């Protein structure tokens, strides 16, 4: 599990806009179009790039070792290359719950199962630890503006490929998608 890498995909309807159909109708399209989901996700994923260690912040069972936005035959997407987190506390922070049938998880790695459990149980606002501080700064402006981050499960706006070889089978637009 230590050197395993998996690919997370966030489908986009346009540059900087998370595709509304990913949310499974959980949040109205009007709210999604006005929301800062893309900016929140990119900022959160960048906060998981090693060697960044955020004390007192929500932990994830993975770290991000590559980030790329690309147009592929399936459409426009933001891709994140994930590796297991170094910290034992982050690896144990999400217990694998019965979120899928045994057949759905059969043949998948423990790392994939931990990521799946984390995404199914975690809401987007819960990982946006800087939201309150940002809102305080915006309130001090002449025209107060609050960042719009809807309550949506991470599993509704992200997808993780359980096949660790997918990174090696695809030709990435920038030669080196990730390195470790």
Overview of this protein structure:
- This protein is of the alpha+beta class and 180 residues long.
- It has one domain (6-169).
- It has nine helices and five strands; from the N terminus they run ββααββααααααβα.
- The chain has helices at residues 29-34, 37-46, 88-92, 102-105, 110-121, 124-127, 131-139, 154-157, 166-169; strands at residues 6-14, 17-18, 62-72, 75-84, 159-161.
- Strand 3 (62-72) and strand 4 (75-84) form a beta hairpin.
Mean pLDDT equals 76
Beta-strand percentage? 15-25%
Tell me the series of helices and strands, N- to C-terminal. Answer: EEHHEEHHHHHHEH
Low-confidence stretches: 89-103
The profile of the biggest β sheet is:
5 strands, antiparallel
Helix share bin: 25-40%
Task: For the record, give the distance between the C-alpha atoms at the N and C termini, rounded to a whole number.
Answer: 15 Å
What oligomerization state is this entry in?
single chain
Number of strands: 5
Structural class: alpha+beta
> What is the tally of helical segments?
9
Count of discrete structural domains? 1
> Radius of gyration from the CA trace?
17 Å
Brief overview:
By secondary structure, the chain is α+β, with helices and mostly antiparallel strands.
Top keywords for this entry?
single chain, globular, 9 helices, 180 residues, alpha+beta, five-stranded antiparallel β-sheet
Task: Set out the fold topology.
Layout (H helix, E strand, L loop, with lengths): L5 E9 L2 E2 L10 H6 L2 H10 L15 E11 L2 E10 L3 H5 L9 H4 L4 H12 L2 H4 L3 H9 L14 H4 L1 E3 L4 H4 L11
Antiparallel strand pairs: 1-2, 1-4, 1-5, 3-4
